[in-house]
């Protein structure tokens, strides 16, 4: 041992570094790295099973321990780390040092004896638990859980270690540390380092003597690098098993999202217990071959690196880190507060997941815009008409409101919606609305309408939420998107939930899928309950009226007549001219105002839009002559009105107006004002130019250029800015009305503008504008900034913006739009723009590469990988560009980088660009080259998207139909799911296996059955599909049953399907019960279904039906012998029914012998506990009548569940039946504590009145199993939640106001630390001790100071807190305030009240020293010096080390 065993005086708090080993050889090496061995503390904490070696390396005091002999893996490592953390609460971090299996690749030359250090990569923390997650369809394994990052202070040391290690002029420090074990021969470096090919298995024996040298991987000599050990930095994979399979090794090593360097056992168990860095010496290659001779040396190399890291890391660097105990307590505080609202947070999380998955458009912008335009009183004629009143009362199911262009249909829709919402507040009805919108591509399809209605209904009604959650679950928790059929079925089921629902759909004529909408409308009206009513508004166009006749009687059609609308126009006109400031100049001449009103009414002809346009023009008239001329020249039609507006545009603005109108007319998504300004000033002459200095000083004045044709609305959603100043909410620019766009794009428009607004001319100009803008950004934004910007995106839309996004988005608002959209415009005018496209792709590499960073149209292109010009052209459908690039010598298979489809051919096949596919194949593209992102071949990509001709073309050109990716079982799997029947026929004719590539997969039939494709099911069966082959989660008939496809269930059964085969979703009858399909349950019972076969989780059909509340299905199942006692992890059918509030089902189950006191799943508890938590009084009474035990074991009582959830009436009833008000458990504390924590004052009073002890603490933890277990009373819980009213009640009943928890923290200290001003005042008023010491931040005053709560500091001082009272943590309150820094306000207050600026104490010594180390503390330091502060140095103890 190096050094001497001199210092035996170190107590537990002196040790700041933990060193954890898994194996004996690792432990021995670690101990030999110590400079000095120390005896250490006399004893461990109670129930700490670890054995420690104590010592010093450099200036660090280190604790070394090893996992128990023979017990390895993440769980064992976690237990060791927890014990270490409990016994040594001052630890700042741990090093997990040991051996691992290397994962070499051609790019990463990892060899035996090398060292791998965990270092964050992308979203990974540096360690990934590769065996923790869930299995998704198609053999996709989704890793779950996030491991903590290593401490920044350790990552900050790595660059210096690497610099010195890579500098040949420097000594090889790691080799020097290895020499510390030269006296131990078995730890010397072996000579043989053999890496065999991945597909070559070990031949047998304890060595590789029998293995063939011909199978060795040839590697370059490494002897010239001058270092004994090579070090690699990146991701380490941790798990509970040893990897001895080279194929698994290579899978993780080559996965782009992982890039694993080595495998080990244990680190994942430590990462989330202690801040940790992992260091592995490579002792094998994670394959079947034997390399045990390297174990000792690999352990030594890792230990040597760890020693070097501690020597480079200065002790002062870790002194500023919080002790682990303190960090953990802060987390526990936050978690305690969060737990008080866990139900709402969980529901919010579910809502966020559903919202992201559904991606429904925000229709509030349309409603708000219409409401803003609506004049009070308009539309009242419609609300009062007989037809509408009958519709509202339910006598009419549906109404159609038809009107001519410009008559104000959307305004009428907003009137109806606002009226219905106002009445719904009293009636409890649900109102849904959707606005089709010609200006927003996200509001033009049936799919988007359905998504919006479903989400609105989910948010408004609790009774139908299960339907959407079920759809989400069926889509593998959002892993895939639902089909339109699935959306329709879900919407119908939600509409039939029993709630009264009114649905208003506006502007059918602006839907781009009219035929499909008509079909949906017919089926929705036919299939939904009579409690659901519909209103549709539209122009009276032939295809719409003829389609709706079949489902809505013409007696239910309302035509917007001129008479009633004229009254609305009169009210609107009168209100504008007498209320708008622009007309105030005429108020002294009432006759002129009257003339305006009369002339407009004489010509309006029932057109709201026409009247609004005339008023816009008349506003600008400043003289009687102007006004009379304008009134005289008012055009009679909307066309004439728009023509006059165009003629009124100044000649100097005509070019700008054309540019604006081009973008508004042809953009698929609304542009914000700033984007439109930038588009307007791009010069597209010559090579193009963009000058930011030419922007309008006031961007909003762009609207003046085409006043009357445009309007602005608030942007629906703003991205959240993560840093930097917040910018004002932006506004979108829209055409003022649908008729404006119609006019501009018609042959009736003004001749000056008409040529430039034709499709080719407009798209040519837009493409040039966007290209020029993109080129400007590429040349003028620094590359580092651009890289930082794109790194914030981490995936497809919606993106998570970072700080550089904030900068780029506001500096160049058109950037992402230009980068993402220029290709789509270029495709329309490709031949005309070919030279410019080729110039962009080929002549300036910087421009192209920068654009690739911004190109987010293809969201799965990994950032920092250049997809190549040919790939981009093929992906965008640029036929002529593809041909030109091939003539220039482009590699027909792409540049080899990892993009979504990998090859130009893969992209073209997926997109369906048949011409490009032919061109690429003609030039030699490999039809059998696998893509990267989808891990699919071109044939699979084309088949998935239903491109039948391309499938045939690929096979004709040599595509191997037997090739498949590892996530699919058959080439027909994807087209069967999407109902591409012609593609399936083609593939089957060409020899594709209907039962998978190996004949053992039924997933194609499962997919077709699940999605209700009856013809596809028959096609597959006719071609030999085995109806009993399962998919990943069950059989075809189970999936058809789950989704309610009765005809397919019958079809499969008639073709021999076995209805009793279980799977993850159970048998067919379990699946039908889960889906709530009683008719299918009845059908399957007739077919002989066994009702008691559980799924793989133990759930039966009865449990599913009970949980769903399907009374009919439950009765059927019970009648056919369903076993009421079968459970799923403790949850029985009775518990499920009780939790869901299904009283009739509970009664039926009890009549059939269900055990009332059996159950107790981890989430629900016993039946009575489940019912109590949900507040189901009737069920609780019923259960008590049948002998339910109110007081459960281990404190898990029904009373606690009810108290924690605020169920006052339930608590009353349970207490009256003998519930123990002092029941408690080690996990949740007492019943009173649960109610106090949640702030339920009425329940707190009720419990106390019934004998609950206010002084009771939660159970102790006698086994010592809980890390930093907290002992607390009800006052602590009330204080933690900020509930002053509860605290007041508890104090009235004698609870000790100064009682402290086992962190030595009182309620006053907790309130001061969380900023609860009202609580602080209450506690002081009730006698709390202001001078009490203890806790992690000392006195209450110090706690308020360190947290920056200025008001509380003032309250404490005003009530007599001693500003100079010493505390055990910071020394004084002033030192605490200075430690925080940032502001001098609190320090100024303390000094003004007599604080001693030169008092010493605490970990910083004095106020001035604390301030100099604090952030943003210049003013604070100056304040202290102005008041006489000097640097006071702490006196060193004679026992301190030198």
Give an overview of the whole structure.
There is one protein chain. The chain is an alpha/beta fold and 1442 residues long. The protein folds into 6 domains: 12-321, Rossmann fold (3-Layer(aba) Sandwich), CATH 3.40.50.1580; 359-560, Rossmann fold, CATH 3.40.50; 566-634, no CATH class; 653-665 and 672-721 and 736-857, no CATH class; 870-967, Alpha Horseshoe (Serine Threonine Protein Phosphatase 5, Tetratricopeptide repeat); 1297-1442, Ankyrin repeat-containing domain (Serine Threonine Protein Phosphatase 5, Tetratricopeptide repeat), CATH 1.25.40.20. Helix content is 46%, strand content 8%. It contains 68 helices and 26 strands. The longest helix is centred in the middle third of the chain and has 22 residues, at 759-780. The chain is globular, with a radius of gyration of 37 Å.
Uncertain ranges: 1-7, 133-142, 327-345, 717-728, 787-806, 856-864, 1259-1270, 1436-1442
Spatial order of the strands in the main sheet? Answer: 5-11-10-6-12
Mean pLDDT: 83
Number of discrete helical segments? 68
CATH architecture of the largest domain: 3-Layer(aba) Sandwich
Number of strands: 26
The name of the CATH topology of the largest domain is Rossmann fold
Share in β-strands: 5-15%
For this entry, give a set of tags:
disordered C terminus; disordered N terminus; Rossmann fold; repeat; Ankyrin repeat protein
């Amino acid at each position: 041992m190096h050094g001497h065993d001199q210092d035996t005086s170190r107590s537990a708090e002196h040790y700041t570094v933990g060193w954890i080993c898994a194996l004996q050889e690792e432990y021995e090496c670690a101990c030999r790295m110590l400079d000095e061995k120390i005896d250490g503390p006399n004893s461990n904490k109670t129930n700490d099973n670890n054995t420690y070696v104590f010592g010093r390396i450099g200036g660090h005091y280190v604790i070394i321990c090893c996992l128990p002999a023979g017990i390895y893996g993440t769980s064992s490592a976690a237990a060791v780390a927890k014990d270490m953390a409990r016994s040594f609460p001052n630890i700042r971090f741990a090093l997990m040092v040991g051996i691992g299996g290397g994962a070499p690749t051609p790019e990463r030359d990892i060899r035996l004896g090398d060292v791998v250090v965990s270092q964050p990569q992308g979203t990974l923390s540096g360690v990934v638990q590769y065996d923790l997650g869930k299995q998704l369809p198609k053999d996709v394994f989704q890793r779950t859980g996030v491991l903590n990052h290593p401490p920044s202070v350790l990552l900050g040391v790595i660059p210096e270690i690497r610099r010195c290690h890579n500098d040949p002029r420097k000594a090889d420090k790691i080799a020097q540390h290895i020499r510390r074990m030269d006296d131990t021969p078995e730890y010397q470096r072996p000579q043989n380092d053999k890496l065999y090919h991945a597909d070559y298995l070990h031949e047998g024996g304890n060595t590789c003597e029998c293995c063939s040298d011909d199978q060795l991987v040839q590697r370059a000599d490494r002897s010239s690098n001058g270092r004994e050990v090579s070090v690699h930095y990146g991701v380490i994979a941790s798990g509970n098993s040893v990897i001895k399979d080279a194929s698994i090794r290579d899978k993780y090593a080559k996965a782009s999202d992982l890039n694993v360097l080595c495998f080990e056992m244990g680190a994942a168990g430590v990462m989330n217990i202690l801040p940790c860095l992992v260091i592995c010496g490579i002792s094998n290659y994670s394959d079947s071959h034997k390399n045990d001779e390297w174990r000792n040396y690999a352990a030594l190399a890792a230990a040597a690196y760890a020693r070097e890291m501690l020597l480079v890391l200065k002790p002062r660097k870790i002194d500023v880190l919080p002790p682990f105990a303190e960090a953990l307590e802060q987390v526990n505080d936050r978690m305690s507060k969060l737990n008080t609202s866990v139900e709402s947070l969980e529901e919010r999380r579910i809502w966020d997941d559903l919202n992201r998955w559904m991606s429904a458009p925000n229709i509030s912008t349309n409603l708000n815009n219409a409401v803003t335009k609506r004049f009070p009183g308009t539309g009242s004629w419609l609300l009062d008409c007989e037809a509408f009143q009958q519709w509202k009362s339910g006598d009419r199911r549906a109404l159609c409101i038809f009107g001519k262009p410009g008559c104000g249909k959307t305004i009428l829709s907003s009137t109806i919606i606002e009226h219905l919402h106002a009445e719904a507040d009293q009636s409890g009805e649900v109102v849904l609305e959707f606005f089709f919108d010609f200006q927003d591509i996200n509001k033009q399809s049936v799919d988007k309408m359905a998504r919006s209605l479903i989400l609105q209904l989910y948010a408004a009604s609790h009774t139908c939420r299960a339907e959407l959650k079920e759809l989400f679950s069926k889509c593998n928790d959002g892993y895939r998107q639902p089909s339109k059929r699935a959306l329709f079925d879900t919407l119908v089921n939600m509409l039939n939930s029993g709630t009264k629902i009114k649905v208003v759909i506006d502007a059918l004529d602006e839907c781009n899928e009219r035929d499909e909408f008509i079909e949906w409308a017919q089926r929705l009206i036919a299939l939904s309950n009579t409690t659901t009513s519909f209103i549709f508004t539209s122009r009276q166009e032939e295809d719409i009226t003829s389609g709706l006749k079949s489902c809505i009687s013409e007696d239910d059609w309302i035509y917007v007549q001129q008479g009633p609308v004229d009254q609305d126009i009169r009210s609107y006109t009168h209100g504008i001219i007498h209320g708008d400031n622009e007309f105030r100049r005429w108020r002294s001449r009432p006759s002129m105002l009257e003339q305006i009103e009369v002339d407009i009414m004489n010509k309006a002809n029932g057109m709201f839009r026409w009247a609004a346009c005339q008023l816009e023009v008349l506003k600008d008239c400043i003289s009687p002559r102007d006004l009379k001329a304008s009134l005289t020249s008012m055009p009679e039609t909307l066309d004439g009105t728009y023509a006059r507006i165009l003629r009124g545009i100044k000649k100097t603005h005509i070019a700008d107006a054309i540019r604006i109108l081009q973008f508004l007319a042809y953009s698929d998504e609304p542009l914000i004002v700033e984007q439109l300004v930038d588009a307007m000033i791009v010069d597209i002459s010559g090579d193009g130019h963009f000058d930011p200095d030419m922007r309008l000083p006031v961007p909003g004045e762009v609207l003046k250029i085409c006043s009357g044709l445009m309007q602005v609305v608030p942007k629906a959603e703003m991205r959240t800015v993560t840093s930097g100043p917040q910018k004002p909410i932006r506004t979108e620019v829209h055409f003022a009305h649908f008729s404006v766009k119609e006019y501009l794009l018609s042959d009736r428009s003004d001749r000056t503008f008409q040529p430039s607004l034709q499709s080719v001319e407009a798209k040519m100009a837009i493409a040039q504008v966007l290209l020029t803008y993109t080129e400007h950004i590429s040349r003028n934004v620094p590359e580092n900034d651009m890289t930082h910007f794109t790194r914030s995106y981490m995936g497809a839309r919606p993106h998570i913006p970072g700080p550089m996004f904030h900068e780029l988005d506001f500096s160049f608002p058109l950037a992402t739009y230009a980068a993402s959209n220029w290709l789509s415009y270029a495709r329309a005018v490709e031949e005309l723009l070919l030279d410019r496209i080729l110039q962009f792709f080929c002549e300036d590499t910087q421009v192209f590469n920068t654009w690739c960073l911004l190109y987010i149209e293809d969201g799965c292109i990994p950032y920092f990988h250049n997809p190549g010009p040919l790939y981009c052209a093929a992906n965008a459908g640029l036929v002529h560009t593809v041909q030109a690039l091939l003539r220039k010598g482009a590699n027909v298979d792409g540049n080899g980088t990892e993009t979504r489809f990998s090859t130009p051919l893969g992209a073209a096949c997926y997109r369906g660009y048949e011409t490009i596919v032919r061109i690429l194949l003609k030039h030699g593209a490999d039809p059998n080259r696998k893509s990267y992102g989808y891990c699919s071949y071109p044939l699979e990509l084309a088949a998935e998207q239903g491109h039948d001709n391309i499938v045939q073309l690929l096979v004709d050109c040599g595509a191997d139909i037997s090739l498949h990716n590892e996530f699919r079982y058959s080439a027909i799997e994807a087209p069967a799911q999407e109902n591409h029947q012609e593609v399936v026929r083609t593939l089957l004719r060409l020899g594709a296996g209907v039962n998978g590539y190996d004949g053992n997969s039924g997933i194609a039939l499962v997919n077709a059955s699940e999605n209700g494709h009856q013809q596809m099911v028959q096609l597959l069966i006719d071609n030999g599909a085995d109806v009993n082959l399962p998919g990943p989660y069950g059989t075809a008939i189970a999936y058809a049953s789950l989704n309610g496809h009765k005809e397919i269930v019958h079809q499969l059964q008639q073709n021999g399907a076995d209805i009793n085969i279980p799977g993850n979703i159970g048998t067919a009858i379990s699946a039908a019960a889960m889906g709530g399909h009683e008719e299918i349950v009845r059908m399957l019972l007739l077919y002989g279904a066994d009702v008691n076969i559980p799924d793989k989780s133990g759930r039966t059909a009865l449990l599913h039906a009970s949980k769903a509340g399907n009374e009919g299905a439950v009765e059927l199942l019970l009648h056919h012998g369903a076993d009421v006692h079968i459970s799923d992890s403790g949850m029985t059918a009775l518990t499920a029914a009780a939790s869901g509030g299904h009283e009739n089902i509970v009664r039926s189950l009890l009549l059939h012998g269900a055990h009332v006191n059996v159950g107790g799943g981890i989430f629900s508890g016993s039946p009575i506990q489940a019912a109590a938590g949900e507040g189901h009084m009737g069920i609780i009474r019923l259960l008590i009548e049948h002998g339910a035990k109110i007081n459960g074991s281990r404190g898990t009582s029904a009373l606690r569940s009810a108290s924690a959830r605020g169920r006052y009436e339930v608590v009353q009833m349970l207490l009256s039946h003998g519930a123990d008000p002092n029941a408690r458990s080690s996990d949740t504390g007492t019943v009173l504590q649960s109610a106090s924590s949640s702030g339920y004052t009425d329940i707190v009073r009720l419990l106390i009145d019934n004998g609950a002890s206010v002084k009771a603490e939660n159970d102790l933890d006698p086994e010592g199993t809980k890390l930093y277990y907290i002992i607390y009373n009800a006052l602590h819980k009330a204080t933690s939640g900020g509930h002053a009213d509860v605290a007041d009640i508890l104090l009235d009943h004698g609870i000790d106001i100064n009682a402290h928890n086992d962190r030595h923290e009182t309620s006053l200290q907790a309130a001061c630390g969380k900023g609860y001003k009202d609580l602080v005042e209450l506690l002081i008023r009730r006698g709390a001790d202001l001078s009490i010491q203890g806790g992690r931040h000392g006195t209450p005053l110090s706690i308020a100071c360190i947290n920056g709560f200025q008001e509380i500091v003032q309250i404490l001082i005003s009530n007599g807190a001693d500003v100079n009272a010493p505390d055990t943590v910071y020394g004084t309150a002033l030192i605490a305030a200075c430690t925080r820094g940032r502001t001098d306000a609190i320090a100024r207050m303390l000094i003004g009240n007599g604080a001693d600026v030169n008092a010493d104490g605490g970990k910083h010594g004095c106020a001035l020293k604390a301030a100099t180390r604090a952030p943003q503390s210049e003013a604070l330091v100056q304040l202290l010096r102005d008041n006489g502060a000097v640097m006071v140095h702490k006196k060193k103890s004679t026992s301190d080390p030198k």
